[in-house]
Amino acid sequence: MPGTVEKKLADLGITLPTPAAPVANYVPFVRTGKLLIISGQLCFDADGKLVAKGKLGGGITIEDGVKAAHACAINLLAQVKSAMGDLDKVVRVVRLGGFINSAPSFVDGPKVMNGASDLMVTAFGDKGRHARTTIGVAVLPLDAAVEVEGAFEVS
């Protein structure tokens, strides 16, 4: 039976996908004590297609980047659910790290990352407010526009 957080997501029309399996020599998450670290999640939609492919500031709009970051956040939550069984076990979203596939002159990465941050606050309320880093990068796997990693305090 879905918990409170999943009901909020369902009310928004969000269904958590089956989490993507790692494509190299790493694991999708690590729990140590009360800290759950989720590996970077690409901006795949429910059908496994990239929401946005290419560079922000080089053909990909900020709006498309926000949608891509939102998709990354959904995939983060799918990994949290896989690790914990219930999103209500999240005590706090501690940190998000965002990687934005950026043209050299693109400076609006933080606006793009709001797509992920806003979902965490919507899902968890004040427990969803987090520290954050946004980094523009030259390229991401599969030429994805955005990748987001996360750290969560869990019970």
Please, could you describe this protein's structure?
The chain has one domain (43-154): 2-Layer Sandwich (60s Ribosomal Protein L30, Chain: A), CATH 3.30.1330. Strands 1-2-5-3-4 form a five-stranded mixed β-sheet. It contains three helices and five strands, in the order H-E-E-H-E-H-E-E. It is α+β, with helices and mostly antiparallel strands and 155 residues long. Helix 2 packs across helix 3 (109-124). It has helices at 4-11, 62-84, 109-124, and strands at residues 29-32, 35-42, 90-101, 131-137, 146-154. The protein is globular. The model has no long low-confidence stretch (mean pLDDT 97).
In short:
With 155 residues, this protein is an alpha+beta fold. It has one domain: 2-Layer Sandwich (60s Ribosomal Protein L30, Chain: A).
